[in-house]
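Schema walkthrough. Field components (list of strings):
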Amino acid sequence: MSKKSKAEERAAKAAAALAERKRKERRRNLLTIGAVVLAMVVIVAVGFLINQSRDEKADEGVAAASSTYEVSIGDEDAPNEVVIYEDFLCPICQGLEAATRDQLAQLADEGQVRVSYRPFNLFSQEGDPRKEYSVAAAAVFAVVLDTSGPEVAKELHDLLYENQPSEAGPFPSEDDLVGLAVEAGADEADVREGLENGDGEDWVEKATAAANDLGINSTPTIYLNGEEFRDGRTMEELAANLVAAVS
Amino acid sequence: MKAWAGLAARLVVGGVWIYAGAIKLPDPDQSVAAVRAYELLPGETAVTVGHLLPVLEVVVGAMLVLGVLVRGAAVVSALLFVVFIIGIASVWSRGIEIDCGCFGGGGYDPDATSKYPWEIARDVVLLALSLFLVWLPRSRWALDNLLLRSTEDADAPVEEVEELEGS
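Field assembly_structure (string):
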């Protein structure tokens, strides 16, 4: 065997060994990558499921069940039941209100649906400039509900949304709110008394605590027949789908 | 030098992701509301995205900081930034004023329009850093360096073989 061919043979062997080593290495790297990717996917999936389970709003059935802090329209035995948690200062609530109020009122009249509006103070963090008006508006609503009954309270509810200030202010004064209550048909002296002795704010505090206990921390939160209703990309779609669902 | 730049990019982008994700983790409902405020996703998709996003952000951030599968993590990171830039540009152009919800929060914000350009600029910078890592994923102090032994180590013998062949 010539010197040259020996060298060639040695080279071929070395090349084969190298190719084999490289192949093994690539294989090992691919397996490592696969395993890490799989691990990451599992972590994300598990985290996602945990997050999902944590967001289940208490029990939807409980949240949609009856509450003291509401004004309702429509027959109690109506085939559909809508519950809306809302804040008088929340602009999307106003949009939803404007887009559904008349239709829902009509459907309620026709016995198709019972709608319960549950105002509470969404902006309840200390120092939130929106808190004062949010509480004040709901407090006047509460006093009117207590002293003049649900029909006047619903009327005031509608007026409060029609006259909703911007979230950035300026906000109406308490006198303005009492004026709306009177416009809705409430007795001014009764309303002022209820506000002065703190009944209104007390109600708002309890209504807010009740909503918070259920994990409701955005508005509007809507329940349709015991399940949270979130079918819609925009408020307009949500409103249209809600009306369609109970029609 | 480039390896150190890669480390810096990993720490900056990864750190931002971990912070952004972790701050949203405690409140999944808020996160869903923030996604919903963009008015882009139909029906229940916003809920899924709202639940998924914070987890994904933390995992991608951790992968970048630790240096695990840097190229893959950087691709995901870059894609997310592209989506966020489109999202912010979209609400801006539609005149919707919302907090971007990037670091918790979300929902209506009356000053939003003045913040959008900065939010987009920030995301563009982070996108650029992510793309840098897609381009040059090798960097200092990355677990990848231990995890994936480079085939480059085998380069030396290759030359040896070639030399032999040439002789």
